[in-house]
Amino acid sequence: MNNAPKILVTGGGTFLGDSIAAALLAAGAEVTLMVRPGAEDNVTTLAERVRVVTADVWNPASLKGRARGHQHVIHTVGGLRADPSQGLTFQYLNFVSARNVANLCVNGGVQHMVLLSSARAPWVNSGYIAAKREAETYIMRAGLRATIIRAPVVYLRGTPRPLFYQLMSLLGVIPPISWLGLRRIAPMPVDVLARGVVRLTLEPRRDSAVFYARDLRRANTQAERFYGTPVEPLLSEDDTKPKNPLRSRGDETPFGWTPPNNQGDR
User: Are 257 and 42 in contact, with CB atoms under 8 Å apart?
Assistant: First the structure.
């Protein structure tokens, strides 16, 4: 009998969604990766090791039944860049998608939902933060056991980054400067985030909880935090090469995808 936890991850085919799915596989979980319609080809080598389902998180009808049989749902979808002229407000991108996935959990009998939220930082739009906080509140009031990850922006080790973000990463781990709050918002390697999310997801708890960067770091070993000890099967070099704009934004876009058009429930 297979007792591996069954986990659904939204945001398949994106940098963060795929990284978390890979870390889940390394932890021995059975993974279902939810991919936006038309983006199936963005799931590369992971497709051989996960179950891939197609659904639009902005369209509740397409989500029906997708969560059944899972113990956990990890929601990574959202948007840091709004375009109100196209109907893509921060609330639509970040709250509506989370609300739909929370309802998916309730209807599918999944008691635990993990939301990739965001830490408040000077370089993060306040409208984006407000929408994320609204999503957090909804999930907690929906009767789910909620794990809220207020994460900083992420980057892939070894890739070029703006000097400002490099400086913030450095100051975020050097006492006493890090004690002033930079440790919570300093950009974080995506492998540290992915492992932290996975280990916090699988940690047995009864109550909802909010976690920050320090909790993600503590869920990694010292070697994993500082030296990037590989976690197999984290994305290979070929998998991390950008295939669409969302994979190439680096620090500018911490999570998820945005809808390709105005379709979906508003």
Answer: no
What stretch of H or E contains 163?
Answer: helix 163-171
Who's near 21: CB < 8 A, 6+ residues apart?
Answer: 9, 12, 31, 33, 46, 50
Residues 6+ apart with CB under 8 A from 243: 41, 42
Q: What is the pLDDT along the chain (266 residues), one digit of tens a residue?
A: 568 999 999 999 888 899 999 999 999 999 999 998 888 888 877 888 999 999 999 999 999 999 999 999 999 998 888 888 888 899 999 999 999 999 999 999 999 999 999 988 877 889 999 999 999 999 999 999 999 999 988 877 777 656 655 555 555 555 654 445 556 667 788 899 999 999 999 998 888 899 998 899 999 988 888 776 554 445 544 444 433 323 323 333 344 344 444 443 33
Q: Judge whether 188 and 178 are in contact, CB under 8 Å.
A: no
Alpha helices in 14-162 (DSSP H): 15-26, 60-63, 90, 97-108, 126-141
Residue 206 CA to residue 61 CA, distance in Å, equals 30
Range 125-134, long-range pairs (CB < 8 A, 24+ positions) = 125/80, 125/82, 125/90, 127/82, 127/89, 127/90, 128/79, 128/80, 128/82, 128/90, 128/94, 130/90, 131/89, 131/90, 131/91, 131/93, 131/94, 131/95, 132/78, 132/94, 132/95, 134/91, 134/94, 134/95
Q: Specify the pTM.
A: 0.82
